[in-house]
Model the fold of this input.
Amino acid sequence: MTSFWSIWVIVLTLACLALIFGLLLWNLKNYVGVKEGESCGHEFDGIEEINNPLPKWWTYMFFATFVWAVYYLAAYPGLGNWQGLAKWTSSNQGVTSLAESKKATEEALAAGEKVQLDQEIIAAEERFGPIFEAFAKQDIETLAKDEKALEIGQRLFSQNCAQCHGSDARGGTGFPNLTDKDWLYGGTPDKIKETLLHGRIAAMPPWKAALGEQGVKEMTAFVLSLSGRKVNQKDADAGKAKFAMCAACHGMDGKGSVAHNLPFGAPNLTDNIWLYGGSQRAVEETLNNGRAGVMPAWKDILGEDKVHLLTAYVYSLSQDK
Done:
C-alpha cells in the first residue's frame, strides 16, 4: 500500500472512531429539556416516548468494544501500513521462493516477531514429527501395506500432489497416471522416492528444425506404428530410417529408457500409453516443439520423513491389491 492510501486509511479510521466515541458521549447527556423517566410529549398509536437513558449494560459494552478496537488497531497490523506493537503477522509477506521463505522465518524468529504461520508449522512439527520419524524407520514395501500409513500418505498426496495428478492419481495430459505400471524413471520404491526427493525435468528436444515438416510427418507415422497403429507405410519406413536420432533415449526398439536402464525418462513408444496424447496431431506437436515437463522436488518442502511415507502411498497405487 502506498503512503497516500496508508494515511487515507489511518485518518479515515481514526476519524470514524472519534466520531462514534463523541456520539456515545453526547447520548449519555440529557439535551431534551425533560427529566429522565418523564414523557417527551410524543405518542403514536398508544405508544408514548419516555426520556430514558441508554441501558447501563449497553453503554458499558460499547465502551469495552471501543477500547478493544483501539487496542487491536495499535497491537496488530491492519491500520494502513502500521505493523503493530505486538510484532504479529499472519505470514511472511513478499516471499517468492522456498529459500526466501526460510530466510524470512529465521529473521522473524531472531527479531522476536510473531508470525502465525511459522508458529503453526513449528507446533505441527513438534506434534507430528515423531510420528513421521517412526514411519520413516520402516521400509516402503511394509508401509505400502499399512492402512494407517496409507491413510496419512493419502492426505499428503491430496495436499501436495493432487493438483497435478488428480485426486484419484490418474493424472491427465502432461501429468503421469500413477495407478498403472508405466513409469518414465522406474516404479521401484527407490526410484519413486528419488523422483519425489529430487524432482524430474523432462528434456524432449524439438525436432522441427532438424527433420522439417515432411520429416516430422514421417517420424510420427513410424512412432505410431510402434504401438500397432495403422499408418501410411511409406511414411513409416522413411521415419524408421531417421529413428536413430531418437534411439539414444528411447532405444532402437522404442521401449524407452526404463527398459534399457537409462536415466533420461524417455517413454516407451510401443505400449500406446501417451503422456501428452497419442493422436497424430499430438505426436507431431511433441516432435515439432519438444516437451519440458517439470516434476518439483519435495525434499526441502516436505522433508525426507514425509517423502518416505508419501512414496509408500504412491507405490501402493500401482500394486495389485
Q: What stands out?
A: Residues 138-201+297-317 form a domain with the Cytochrome Bc1 Complex; Chain D, domain 2 fold (CATH 1.10.760.10). DSSP finds 15 helices and six strands in the chain.
